[in-house]
Design a protein that fits this description.
Layout (H helix, E strand, L loop, with lengths): L2 H15 L27 E2 L11 H10 L16 H9 L6 E4 L1 H12 L4 E6 L4 H8 L4 E5 L8 H7 L4 E7 L11 H11 L4 E5 L15 H5 L5 E6 L12 E4 L2 H9 L11 H12 L1 H24 L11 E5 L7 H7 L2 E2 L1 E5 L2 E7 L3 H11 L5
Parallel strand pairs: 1-10, 3-4, 3-5, 5-6, 6-7
Antiparallel strand pairs: 2-8, 7-8, 9-12, 11-12
Helix pairs in contact: 2-10, 3-10, 4-5, 11-13
C-alpha cells in the first residue's frame, strides 16, 4: 500500500480523535514511535504536540534507571518516592494538603469538568480542548467566548458571559493554541471577581516558558486563601515528560479534599513509580529547564521572523509553539504538510484558517522554514 494512502487513513482517524478546535491532524509520540505500517519514512518533523525536543533532564534519566527494578511494585510500595508530594509542595510554597497528583494535567482537566457539573462553563474559543470537550460530553452548557483581535482571552466578554448558573470558568494561560498570555495583574483581577461566583481553573502548562514578572502563577491566590481558584500544572512541557504522564492540581485543602472524595479517588494510584521518581529528579535540575527555555526562545524567535519574512503574520508567542493565520490557503494545511513529512496542527476558526507549529530544535525549525518556502497561503 502506498505511503499516500497510509497517510490518508491516519489523517482520517486523527481528525476524529483530535482534541477540539477542529484540528485536522494530531501528533503521535515521536518519529521513532510512529507505527511502521503507516509507511511514513524517517526524517519526519514531529512539530504537532508542543513537546520538549531536548528530552529529560540527565538526573531524571538516571532516576528511572535506578528505580527500574522496582517497576514490579505499586507506587505506594516504593519508599524512594514517598516524599514526592512533600518536595512538590516545598517547590511551590504550599502544603501537601494543597496538592493532588494526577496522571498528566489532561486527566486533571477531564476530572475537573466532571466535578464542576452543576451549572454552565465559561471558556475561550479557541482553547485547549480537554476540559470543555469533556463538559460537552456530559451535557454541561459550554459558553465559548471568542478571543480578541490579538488572539488573547477577552476577559471582559468572559465576565459578561457568566451568570447565576455559571459553575466553572476555564482559562489556559499562556494560551493553547493561540500562544498568547495575560499579564498576571490582569488575570488575577479577573480571577478575584469570577471566583466569587464560580470555580476558576487556570491551566498553567506553559507558564515555565515565560520570564519574570510575567511568569507569576495564580498559585499565589490559592495560598492567600481563595477556595475557588484551582491551578493545574504539568511535567509534560518544560520538564519534557509528556510520555511519562505526571501532572498536579493546586487548590485550597477543602477543594482538594472534595475532589478526592468525588472523581479523584484513584488519581494517585494511576501515576507510576518511575514517572514520579523522574519528576522528583527533574524538579532539582533548574539548569536543564533554563537551557530548554533558552533554546526554545531562540528557535521561536528564528521561526517567528522567518514566517514573517515569508508573508505570514504569526501571533507573538509566549510558549513553545507559534500560531499563524493561513490567509486564503485552499487546502487542508496539516494534511498537506504531512505529505511534506511535517506533523503540525491546522484549524478552521470563525476568522479563517490557522496553523500551529511546535518548536523543535533550531535545526528542525530551519528544515521547517525551508519547507514553508514552498507553501502559498
Amino acid at each position: 500500500m502506498s505511503n499516500q494512502l497510509h497517510r490518508r487513513d491516519w489523517l482520517k482517524q486523527s481528525a476524529l480523535a483530535a482534541l477540539g478546535l477542529t484540528f485536522s491532524a494530531r501528533s503521535l509520540g515521536g518519529e521513532d514511535y510512529l507505527p511502521r505500517e503507516l509507511g511514513i519514512e524517517t526524517g519526519l518533523l514531529n512539530l504537532g504536540s508542543n513537546e520538549n525536543p531536548y528530552g529529560l533532564a540527565p538526573g531524571a534519566k538516571q532516576a528511572i534507571s535506578e528505580l527500574i527494578n522496582t517497576a514490579n511494585r505499586y507506587a505506594y510500595n516504593v519508599p524512594a518516592i514517598q516524599s514526592f508530594k512533600k518536595e512538590l509542595a516545598e517547590e511551590y510554597g504550599v502544603t501537601e494538603e494543597h496538592l493532588l497528583i494526577t496522571a498528566g494535567s489532561g486527566e486533571a482537566l477531564n476530572l475537573l469538568a466532571r466535578h464542576c457539573n452543576k451549572g454552565n462553563l465559561v471558556t475561550a474559543n479557541p482553547t485547549f480542548g480537554i476540559l470543555p470537550n469533556t463538559a460537552k460530553k456530559i451535557g454541561i452548557e459550554v459558553r465559548e467566548v471568542l478571543l480578541d483581535s490579538g488572539k488573547v482571552h477577552d476577559l471582559q466578554a468572559m465576565a459578561k458571559a457568566m451568570d447565576a448558573n455559571t459553575a466553572h470558568v476555564y482559562i489556559c494561560n499562556p494560551a493553547n493554541p493561540s500562544s498568547t498570555m495575560l499579564k498576571p495583574a490582569v488575570l488575577k483581577a479577573f480571577c478575584e471577581e469570577a471566583s466569587k461566583k464560580a470555580v476558576v481553573t487556570v491551566d498553567e502548562a506553559y507558564i515555565d516558558f515565560l520570564d519574570a514578572p510575567d511568569n507569576e502563577s495564580m498559585i499565589s491566590m490559592v495560598k492567600s486563601g481563595n477556595k475557588n481558584i484551582v491551578v493545574v500544572r504539568t511535567f509534560s512541557k518544560i520538564h519534557a515528560m509528556a510520555g511519562l504522564r505526571v501532572g498536579f492540581v493546586i487548590a485550597a485543602p477543602e477543594t482538594i479534599k472534595a475532589l478526592q472524595a468525588n472523581y479523584f479517588g484513584n488519581s494517585n494510584f494511576c501515576v507510576g513509580s518511575l514517572p514520579i521518581h523522574a519528576a522528583m529528579a527533574s524538579l532539582k535540575d533548574t539548569a536543564h529547564r533554563e537551557s530548554c527555555k533558552q533554546k526554545n526562545a531562540a528557535a521561536r524567535e528564528y521561526t517567528h521572523k522567518a514566517l514573517q519574512d515569508l508573508g505570514f503574520k504569526p501571533i507573538p508567542s509566549s510558549t513553545n509553539f507559534i500560531f499563524f493565520p493561513l490567509k486564503n490557503y485552499g487546502g487542508d494545511f496539516a494534511k498537506d504538510m504531512l505529505e511534506k513529512n511535517v506533523i503540525l496542527r491546522s484549524s478552521v476558526l470563525p476568522d479563517g484558517k490557522w496553523g500551529r507549529v511546535s518548536m523543535g530544535t533550531m535545526e528542525e525549525m530551519q528544515k521547517f522554514i525551508k519547507i514553508m518556502q514552498t507553501v502559498k497561503a
